[in-house]
Amino acid sequence: MTPPLSTPSLLPLLLVAFNICFSLAASNSIYESFVQCLKTRSNSSDNISDIVYSHSNATYETVLEQYIRNARFNTSSTPKPVIIITPLTESHVSAAVICSNNIGFQLRIRSGGHDFEGVSYVSDQPFFILDMFNLRSISINMADQSVWVQSGATLGELYYRIWEKSRVYGFPAGVCPTVGVGGHISGAGYGNMVRKYGLSVDYVVDAKIVDVNGNILDRKAMGEDLFWAIRGGGGASFGVILAFNIKLVEVPEMVTVFKLERTLEQNATYVVYKWQSVAPTTDDNLFMRMLVQPVTLNKQKTIKISIMALYLGDVNSVVPLLAEDFPELGLVTEDCFEMSWIESALWWASFGKGTSPTVLLDRESYHVKFMKRKSDYVKTPISKDGLQWLWKKMIELEEPGLVFNPYGGKMNEIKETETPFPHRAGNLFKIQYSINWKDMGIEADKRSRNLVNRLHSYMTSFVSKNPRSAYLNYRDLDIGITKNWSYQEGKVYGESYFNGNFERLVDVKTAVDPPNFFRNEQSIPPRTIKAWNEKNEGSIPPSTSKAWNKSKPYVMIILFMAIGII
């Protein structure tokens, strides 16, 4: 007779059984139940089964992978969604929220897939993906310079459609054309016009969102508190953003761009030192991003800086401006290129001269790689000695780089409480930490992340403190995550991203989503969930427990088979 299994030896079987039970929950019965619910709840005559993908669907992998923008989250061990929903109408979104909640699965919302930590399409709990890529309409009203843009549209599509209508209007947002509008704007959104016009959210005048009850709300219906929260607080904590109504900004018919590079041997240290005082204070029309990278040139390890700039004006204005403000840079007319605003969008996206703006409509132009990003804010200039010490550390690490993005200008004029994004006046520049790698596997991942974490640690004395602030759209799970959906866990990362605005975000979350249906590893927690967790420590959150209850019989069968009872 086979001896009974001890408790320790049962643990692996229990884990296997737990995973299998949720695979069973993704079977045809769950799929059919979900599709039937969608048909009942949506106001569309479309074939609902055509927009819902389960593991058994031949195109499931294609749909899942087409908007994975970080190769770290496209491995065999990456948790996969039970079902992917690709809505075609607003009623599909509303129905998906209701049905996911009823069936008991967490819902992850993806607009462009550029979340650096993959939280829009990965979860360690059973989950569905609501993929918004079909909802990408852009309606422009040049009479009042406003645009309704759906959250599944990309920034490239938005810029292209604006260009079709006007050569003297644009929108202040990011330089990567494949980024999704929904995530970019709801996380605040910034780009190379940040000093002239501020953030993307500063030009949002209305929005449409699906709440936890499946209601479709505009600004008037949702109220000013929720409207405030989704303009920089991350929409996925509060509902599903359907669309934003944005205001366009004026741009000249011709703008100027330039890129200059220097190494330590070319006085890069002094250029960086001076950049810290000039870039945030010079003419608001000028944005000078600076990349700092360790490189090897002629077998000599050194630091290379690259200054990429957009000036909202002509070359005859920017050259004398910097001759006065920043003579150490040595900018001359030959370094500069005049072009239209839409051509500058192509230049910033690294497309070659003469590239047609239609490339901005190409959603496949993004090269997926393994990557890790982090962020910081600098309030006081780093000394020359500090920079020289930093260069030594970066040369030792060899791989991680830094990107400095200057603030000042319009950012100094808007109060930190105007939107959830608080990093306004008093911040000289924002830092992005960056590392990319090619090798697959746990060891390569661990090594690369360790390198960028070490660089982040070296910067501690140079950046903001209490809290050490960070930018939500450069999401970094190293700051902290929530496992029990508690207020205290959320406060750790919440105060880094939102400073004093975190408390108001919690109040909004508590009012609009008390059951915490819309959640992820760094979502805004409701205050009520804290009390629920303390009372039910170690329990499964309510919506997940529904799926558990449905799967419990399967688990028991599997366990009995595993220990030889049946």
UniProtKB/TrEMBL annotation:
Signal peptide: 1-25
Principal subcellular localisation of the protein: secreted
Family to which the UniProt record says this protein belongs: Belongs to the oxygen-dependent FAD-linked oxidoreductase family.
Keyword Signal: yes
Domain FAD-binding PCMH-type as annotated: residue spans: 77-251
The protein, known as: FAD-binding PCMH-type domain-containing protein
One function term, GO molecular function aspect: FAD binding
Compartments where found: Secreted, Cell wall
InterPro entries: BBE, FAD-bd_PCMH, FAD-bd_PCMH-like_sf, FAD-bd_PCMH_sub1, FAD-bd_PCMH_sub2, Oxid_FAD_bind_N
Family matches, as SUPFAM superfamilies: FAD-binding/transporter-associated domain-like
Transmembrane helix found in the keyword field: no
Keywords: Cell wall, Disulfide bond, FAD, Flavoprotein, Glycoprotein, Nucleotide-binding, Oxidoreductase, Secreted, Signal
Cofactor requirement: FAD
Pfam families tied to this protein: BBE (PF08031), FAD_binding_4 (PF01565)
